Amino acid sequence: MRSISALAVAIAVLAVPSLEAGQRKSQPKPAAKPAPARPGARPAPTRTEAAQVTCPESLGTGVRTGATYCFVLAGRDPAEGVRITIPPRTGDATLRFDLHNRHTYSEEQMRAGRGFASYTAVIGVLANDGELLDRAAIQTEFRAAQDLHERISGGAGPGGVKAVAPVGIEPIVLTIPAGVDEVSLLGEVLDATTAAGREVAAPGRPVALVSNVTIEYRPRK
Question: Residue 35 falls within a domain, yes or no?
Fold first, then answer.
């Protein structure tokens, strides 16, 4: 899954004629030649930083890693997705994040031998105008508590954790084309089999989770 596109930039130089005495037109001045590159000049170094993320629905903070987890909701409107700002830059940018499935953990189901679950989730990466730039996917199976990626603080369960937790981890690396200043993550496909039955993607409902969103880019001078 790699999407690469380039934006060509054209520069036009206009010479504006002026009038001399006697209504005669002066000869146009030749276009200025670009200054030669300085010996040893290098492009600005790339920068990697935590991305600015607008999360429509947050799960919370992990008790082990301290990472923030955001639900990716099913839908098609970029304004309703996980919106990620791409800073002003030269050229393409590289977007990285961890993709997780979500699981509702139940001690009762585990004791009853009904704890198995399987999940397949696919999300889309869209530009502001709705253009699909790329996709990301994760497939996970759950059999025991150690299959959870981590627990989330702020719940009523033992130890103050939430029942819903991220399960599995898929590191995602995507190329964002030059000229795109924001992307939105939206759920496309969910195929989940749990003790409660089969679940598929429904508009506005969580499909997956994302965490550790970073952006690598070359700052514009």
Answer: no
